[in-house]
Design a protein that fits this description.
The chain contains 6 helices and 13 strands. It has 242 residues and is of the alpha+beta class. The chain folds into 2 domains: 157 residues, 60s Ribosomal Protein L30, Chain: A; 69 residues, Alpha-Beta Complex (CofE-like fold). The strands form 4 sheets. It has a 5-stranded mixed beta sheet. Strands 3-8-7 form a 3-stranded antiparallel beta sheet. It has a 3-stranded antiparallel beta sheet with strand order 4-5-6, covered by helices on one side.
């Protein structure tokens, strides 16, 4: 499906946003923040949510004390400086990996099909770690459905995750889950046809605003973007699906 081009859009953070705790109702937190800030959602808005708050709400915490490192994890720990327990979690949640440089980072092919730095695992202080949601596309659909029930607006939801690139320093953001929006966009011009990873473009726009390292802004609203509706999710555009 060829999508109508977007001529312009607006993007803004939903803030101040409460700190999400284990098992919190994320849709309810978003709804309360909308009410408290006097923000109205509109049909067609795209809600971009940081994966970490989804993982917290879904209780994806692992205590490092409960992890027993293997010999391979110990070896990678010595090379990269990462705690061996954290490296073991990376190995447990991936099917393959390589080091971007001799000292890391570890680029892993996650069991879900994504290629991510450290298999998408985030540190939780010195004693724990956050794993990705079990099924990010399902998480996006559940959040979209809950928001529709709460506020009645027909919105799309994209779950964004911070990620590094093997060929360069620094981090960016990519999409790992989506609902209500087709993950791929097809454009045509001058007889040429191009397929684009559209939900990644969405997260890139939101990533300029999304909180990093404690900024505390896990939800961004994009308005005015033209997109094709769809629930196939990000998994539909992966080369290696789980």
């Amino acid at each position: 499906m060829i999508t109508t081009p977007t001529a312009g859009f607006s993007a803004f953070a939903l803030e101040p946003f409460p700190e999400i705790q284990l098992g919190d109702d994320l849709a309810a937190a978003i709804t309360r923040t909308l009410t408290r800030t006097g923000t109205d959602l509109m049909d067609g808005d795209v809600i971009v949510v940081a994966s970490k708050v989804v993982s917290i709400a879904e209780k994806r915490y692992v205590a490092l004390a409960d992890v027993t490192p293997s010999a391979k994890a110990m070896e990678l720990s010595a090379k990269t400086g990462k705690p061996a327990e954290l490296v073991q979690l990376i190995l447990d949640n991936s099917v393959s990996h390589f080091l971007a440089t001799e000292g890391g980072p570890i680029i892993a092919q996650h069991t879900l099909g994504y290629q991510l730095t450290s298999a998408g695992i985030d540190r939780a202080g010195a004693e724990g770690a956050w794993l990705l949601p079990v099924d990010p596309d399902a998480s996006a659909r559940a959040l979209r459905d809950a928001l529709l029930a709460h506020i009645g607006s027909d919105v799309a939801v994209v779950i964004a995750d911070s990620d590094g690139r093997a060929d360069r320093r620094g981090a960016t953001v990519i999409s790992i889950g989506a609902a209500g929006i087709a993950p791929l966009r097809v454009t045509e011009h001058g007889g040429k046809r191009q397929e684009e990873t559209f939900t990644d473009l969405i997260t890139a726009a939101a990533g300029i605003i999304l909180g990093q390292r404690g900024r505390g802004v896990p939800v961004v609203i994009l308005r005015g973007i033209s997109y094709a509706p769809g629930d196939e999710g990000v998994a539909a555009m992966l080369h290696h699906r789980p």
